[in-house]
Design brief:
This protein is α+β, with helices and mostly antiparallel strands. Among the domains are: 121 residues, Ku70, Chain: A, Domain 2 (Beta Barrel), CATH 2.40.290.10; 105 residues, no CATH class. 38% of the residues lie in helices and 21% in strands. It contains 7 helices and 13 strands. The strands form 4 sheets. The chain has a 7-stranded mixed β-barrel with strand order 1-2-8-11-10-9-7. A hairpin with a 4-residue loop joins β3 and β4. The longest helix is centred in the C-terminal third of the chain and has 70 residues.
């Protein structure tokens, strides 16, 4: 790896020649600016405001702009001649436990490489001393025109240095936290703990940059003239009714993603808006008091269900016969009622006919006499 700075580590009276190399690299995809109409590159030209002409790199220096706008030239020789012991030296000033360093202070990381064979022995000495003490070294060094803080620690068998921000470069947290009075219930904390336990730990080496991969696929598709991939339509998550519901649903989805069995606790409401969720406190209480009738019912319960179903079927089969007999009785009663209503009329007719016959016979006898 190419070094970006050469100097030495000052460890008391021990001096360790080292080279500073970047410990990290960026894999982000960079883009160029173009003219949309014709695809021409857009470039920035460095122009001198006094002469109104473009200048070369070797003609460019640095200067400090004063409060009145005046430019005060500063050369590299000026900076190199500063009376600072850290100009070319990483000066260790203290050793502290690693947890004393606030991660907010951490900046760019570097590897420190022993510069030459004579540096191998003191380099190894400092590395092993850091390992045994289980501490980190706090140092001061100058880089790119300013003095900085650094933290030295051991990574594998290499001394690494993290640039640290000065304490006054860390902003105060005042006004950032929510100013509304909020109370978190124990049940919500329990569900948050359950979610944390479900998500578990992760090996950072297994994580990767999905966005960069998607951009690479997009570039490859456009370069080959194929259709650019499109993101799938976002599924409407709906609105969450309360924090408990959100936490429990998160636990359920995390378990499902890991293939674990999920206990019923959150379900979607059929009558509400799409994707709404409801925390089933009542259902959970009922399930503790009495077992619910589900497909996991006991054999006795299943037998009871079957016998009840059989009785209903038998009753259903007998019902038509009963309806037939009832209909017959109704028809018989109807005939009897008809007979009762017709009998008096028939008797009256017969009596009238008998009287007429008797009258005719009497008239006949009188005529013969």
């Amino acid at each position: 790896m190419r070094s970006i700075w050469n100097g030495a580590i000052s460890f008391g009276l021990v001096s360790i020649p080292i080279k500073l190399v970047n410990a990290t690299e960026s894999h982000s995809i960079s883009f160029r600016q173009i003219h949309v109409e014709d695809g021409g590159r857009i470039r920035y030209r460095k122009v001198c405001e006094v002469e109104d002409r473009e200048v070369r790199g070797d003609e460019i220096g640095k200067a400090y702009e004063g409060a009145d706008g005046a430019m005060i030239p500063i050369t590299d020789d000026d900076l190199a001649s500063l009376p600072l012991p850290t100009a070319k030296t990483i000066e260790i000033v203290a050793f502290v436990p690693g947890d004393r360093i606030d991660p907010l202070q951490m900046d760019t990381a570097y590897y420190l490489s022993a510069n030459g064979v004579p540096a191998a022995k003191p380099y190894t000495l400092l590395r092993e001393a850091l390992k045994r003490s289980q501490k980190v070294a706090i140092a001061k060094f100058a880089l790119r025109g300013r003095e900085r803080l650094g933290m030295l620690r051991v990574v594998d068998d290499v001394i690494a240095m993290h640039g640290l921000l000065w304490p006054d470069e860390i902003r105060d947290t005042e006004g950032v936290a929510p100013d509304a009075g909020v109370t978190v219930r124990d049940q919500e904390l329990d569900l948050a703990d359950a979610l944390m336990a479900t998500l578990g730990e992760v090996d950072l080496a297994d994580l990767h940059d999905d966005y960069r991969e998607a951009v690479e696929e997009l570039i490859a598709a456009k370069a080959s003239g194929e259709e650019a991939p499109h993101a799938p339509a976002a599924s409407g998550g709906g609105k969450v009714l309360d924090l408990m519901a959100a936490l429990e649903k998160s636990v359920r989805e995390a378990k499902e993603s890991r293939g674990e069995e999920v206990a019923e606790g959150v379900e979607e409401e059929g009558g509400g808006g799409a994707g709404e969720v409801k925390y089933l406190r009542e259902r959970r209480t009922v399930s503790k008091a009495a077992p619910r009738a589900t497909s996991r019912a006991t054999p006795k319960a299943e037998a009871g269900k079957k016998s009840t179903s059989t009785a209903k079927k038998a009753a259903g089969k007998k019902a038509p016969a009963a309806r037939k007999s009832t209909g017959t009785v109704k028809k018989t009663a109807s005939k009897a009622s008809t007979a009762k209503t017709t009998t008096p009329k028939a008797a009256t007719t017969k009596a009238s006919t008998a009287k007429k016959t008797a009258a005719k016979k009497t008239a006949a006898r009188k005529r013969s006499a």
